[in-house]
Specification:
The complex is a heterodimer of chains A (about 120) and B (about 110).
Chain A: E1 3-7, E2 11-12, E3 18-25, E4 34-39, E5 45-51, E6 58-60, E7 68-73, E8 78-83, E9 92-98, E10 110-111, E11 115-119
Parallel strand pairs in A: 2-11
Antiparallel strand pairs in A: 1-3, 3-8, 4-5, 4-9, 5-6, 7-8, 9-10, 9-11
Chain B: E1 4-7, E2 10-13, E3 19-25, E4 33-38, E5 45-49, E6 53-54, E7 62-67, E8 70-75, E9 84-90, E10 97-98, E11 102-106
Parallel strand pairs in B: 2-11
Antiparallel strand pairs in B: 1-3, 3-8, 4-5, 4-9, 5-6, 7-8, 9-10, 9-11
The chains are: A mainly beta (about 120), B mainly beta (about 110).
Chain lengths: ~120, ~110
């Protein structure tokens, strides 16, 4: 069974940085692309970033490009999101999601349970 | 970016009713479309992939259709456990984009 467990969500001040992690199990991690998707409280879903199986292809939403960095460690079955210059509008539940192939483009998602990031002074 | 427009944004129907939600893409996405169900306080769950393929374990009362720019998901007989918000998502092009969601309630 696919299990994705996010951690690292916290209350952080605007302009500060925060790092999220996702521990994966129940599948061969280095066969699949991985993604971060977020959802502001009471709002819809927004894809944030994706990384291919070998980190050779990475994509970002325009709203986070230049501020967020996705990475993975296949030896540790882990996905990461380094977030900097955080803004109030980054407040959201952040979901780790498994893709359905090694490519970030052809992806349907299996989802973790999410971790809450709150950006506020 | 490919815009995904869902309608309606909410609906109220009776148990046993047939319910249809539509999703329109701003350009041709072939059949590169997924549907997700999100219950309150929970993570989304994949219902349908490649526009019309039912995910394993999803009840057969759910079905999906469409290609190109126009897609639908249908619940043939609405059940109380289907109360949720439904989202479409395209994966033809980056950035991957979602529709705004359709909230389904029981009348």
């Amino acid at each position: 069974e696919v299990q994705l467990v996010e951690s690292g969500g916290d209350l952080v001040q605007p302009g500060r940085s925060l790092s999220l992690s996702c521990a994966a199990s129940g599948f061969t991690f280095d066969d699949y692309a991985m993604h971060w998707v977020r959802q502001a409280p009471g709002k819809g879903l927004e894809w944030v970033s994706g990384i291919s199986w070998n980190s050779g292809s990475i994509g970002y939403a325009d709203s986070v490009k230049g501020r967020f960095t996705i990475s993975r460690d296949n030896a540790k079955n882990s996905l990461y999101l380094q977030m900097s210059s955080l803004r109030a509008e980054d407040t959201a539940f952040y979901y780790c999601a498994k893709g359905s192939s090694g490519s970030i483009l052809r992806s349907r998602f299996n989802w973790g349970q999410g971790t809450l990031v709150t950006v506020s002074s | 970016d490919i815009q995904m427009t869902q309608s309606p944004s909410s609906l109220s129907a009776s148990v046993g009713d047939r319910v249809t939600i539509t999703c329109q893409a701003s350009q041709d996405i072939s059949n590169y479309l997924n549907w997700y169900q999100q219950k309150p306080g929970k993570a989304p769950k994949l219902l349908i992939y490649d526009a019309s393929n039912l995910e394993t374990g999803v009840p057969s009362r759910f079905s999906g259709s469409g290609s190109g720019t126009d897609f639908t998901v249908t619940i043939s007989s609405l059940q109380p456990e289907d109360i949720a918000t439904y989202y479409c998502q395209q994966y033809d092009n980056l950035p991957l984009t979602f529709g705004g969601g359709t909230k389904v309630e029981i009348k």
